[in-house]
């Protein structure tokens, strides 16, 4: 089949898709047509309806109205198994891999090949995995443990998993969120390899420059409905942002200095090991002044989480941690919080919220030190203030946190952690998985707090965010600070190179 013939066929068609939930219409008369053998991007704000639409296409939810057609044939999916049987696979933003299993074991999990209906046929699985890996240029070793491979390789394993199950249509949810620039380039090469073999890709992302670089077509969703389908060659990132949110593409750029001489946080010789004796952090030292943002750049898994846990008192470490001159090494996490440390965790749903609790209860999460008594009236009033000040879009403060979109969950956490005039804010991936509108709002709040004297420790996989917001920037590699770079002069490519250790022996 020739390339021209592939491009004229429709792999996925969604016509008039509508999905209602109590009090909200998540999707309203959605229309989407995805050409076979193309990369079709879907962009829109958090809460615009992208996730609901993809859950419908993947059989996780059923539409109230409308029709789905795969290769021209109407289908009705009741479960993800139905979608998989129809050739649809989904790679989620948060990888679903077991670290203690091999690549092969992860790939075949739930679809184990059997000999004679009983014994597991790992030889057949290994052969099939190698064939798929070679055919699509995925470069995956089936016998290595997942815990021993990097983020980019893990993502290729996730893609291989769905191809192993026969997927010809791939849904990729925020596939570049945790990748450094060279890994993004490698991913795009892999995607183009898939497309050349006739695979169709639906690509969901908040990174508009990446969407414009990789997509063959773009559909914009706003407030639950499709508002435009555009050719990436004829639109700019700024125009795409205006279609999404009705405003200019935001920039994290911050150049006016607000750094004072007053030290807010001093870390000296911070070291942490694991049970096996391996050092997770080695001799980490730095200071953060009031009005300063110190950025930490690094590929995930190089000690960022351990650094945060050490400063928060969650995990034991050696060395000294001083907050406003006071040695807090022996303090509990609660006492550190009470002394003025705000904390935006990297995983908002696992560590930042009680998803099945109302917003006002989440407001006091980690901040209620008044014994058994809860100031319900005060908590409700302050939650309402956060909702208004941080533009948390919600029907009310009594709805569960799970009912909010990811961006609105994040704005609630940011508002909570900036309440009470903290001395230090630890912000781990503060805008991960949020749309450009929520991202711009969070950047504005961080800049305002910085100008008012807040010290910020910023950890992010978004290199533009790190470069734009940071006054000082350090690179963390294998648990050690290996470089100090000037945010005013460094490029994302140079920073990405330092993060991976490229040229460190030169």
Automatic annotation (TrEMBL):
User: Which CDD domains does the protein's record reference?
Assistant: ABC_Carb_Monos_I (cd03216), ABC_Carb_Monos_II (cd03215)
Q: How does it sit in the membrane?
A: Peripheral membrane protein
State any single GO MF term.
ATP hydrolysis activity
Q: Which Pfam families match?
A: ABC_tran
Which residue intervals define the domain ABC transporter in the entry?
A: 12-248, 265-503
Q: Which key words are in the record?
A: ATP-binding, Cell membrane, Membrane, Nucleotide-binding, Repeat, Translocase, Transport
Question: Which PANTHER family does this entry report, sorted A to Z?
Answer: CARBOHYDRATE TRANSPORT ATP-BINDING PROTEIN MG119-RELATED, GALACTOFURANOSE TRANSPORTER ATP-BINDING PROTEIN YTFR
This chain's protein is named: Sugar ABC transporter ATP-binding protein
Q: What is the lineage of its organism?
A: Bacteria, Bacillati, Actinomycetota, Actinomycetes, Streptosporangiales
């Amino acid at each position: 089949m020739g390339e021209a013939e592939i491009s004229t066929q429709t792999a996925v068609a969604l016509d008039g898709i509508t999905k209602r939930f109590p009090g909200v219409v998540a999707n309203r008369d959605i229309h989407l047509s995805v050409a076979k053998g193309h990369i079709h991007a879907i962009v829109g704000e958090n809460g615009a309806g992208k996730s609901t639409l993809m859950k419908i296409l993947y059989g996780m939810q059923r539409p109230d109205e409308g029709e789905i057609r795969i290769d021209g044939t109407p289908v009705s999916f009741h479960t993800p198994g139905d979608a998989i049987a129809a050739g649809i696979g989904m790679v989620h933003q948060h990888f679903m891999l077991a670290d203690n299993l091999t690549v092969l074991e992860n790939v075949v999990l739930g679809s184990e090949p059997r000999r004679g209906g009983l014994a597991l046929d790992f030889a057949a699985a290994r052969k099939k995995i190698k064939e798929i890996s070679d055919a699509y240029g995925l470069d995956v070793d089936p016998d290595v443990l997942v815990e021993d491979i990097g983020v980019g390789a893990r993502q290729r394993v996730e893609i291989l998993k769905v191809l192993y199950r026969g997927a010809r249509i791939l849904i990729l949810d925020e596939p570049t969120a945790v990748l450094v620039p060279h890994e993004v380039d490698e991913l795009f090469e892999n995607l183009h390899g898939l497309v050349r073999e006739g695979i169709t890709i639906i690509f969901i992302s908040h990174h508009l420059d990446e969407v414009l670089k990789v997509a063959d077509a773009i559909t914009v969703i706003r407030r639950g409905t499709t508002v435009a389908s555009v050719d990436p060659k004829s639109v700019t990132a700024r125009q795409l942002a205006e279609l999404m949110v009705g405003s200019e593409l935001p920039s994290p750029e911050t150049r006016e200095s607000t750094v004072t001489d007053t030290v807010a946080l001093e870390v000296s010789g911070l070291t942490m090991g694991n049970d096996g004796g391996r050092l997770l952090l080695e001799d980490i030292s730095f200071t953060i002044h009031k009005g300063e943002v110190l950025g930490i750049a690094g590929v995930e898994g190089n000690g960022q989480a351990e650094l945060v846990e050490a400063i928060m008192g969650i995990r034991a470490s050696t060395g000294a941690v001083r907050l406003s001159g006071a040695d807090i090494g022996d303090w509990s996490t609660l006492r550190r919080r009470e002394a003025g440390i705000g904390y935006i965790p990297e995983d908002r749903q696992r560590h930042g919220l009680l998803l099945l609790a109302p917003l006002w209860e989440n407001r006091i999460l980690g901040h209620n030190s008044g014994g058994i008594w809860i100031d319900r009236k005060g908590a409700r009033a302050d939650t309402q203030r956060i909702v208004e000040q941080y533009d948390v879009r919600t029907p009310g403060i009594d709805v569960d946190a799970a009912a909010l979109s990811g961006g609105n969950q994040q704005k609630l956490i940011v508002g909570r952690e900036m309440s009470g005039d903290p001395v230090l804010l630890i912000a781990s991936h503060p805008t991960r998985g949020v749309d450009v509108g929520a991202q711009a709002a969070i950047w504005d709040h961080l800049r305002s707090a910085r100008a008012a004297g807040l010290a910020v420790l910023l950890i992010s996989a978004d290199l533009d965010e790190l470069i734009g917001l940071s006054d000082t920037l350090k690179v963390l590699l294998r648990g050690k600070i290996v470089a100090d770079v000037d945010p005013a002069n460094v490029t994302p490519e140079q920073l990405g190179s330092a993060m991976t250790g490229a040229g460190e022996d030169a």
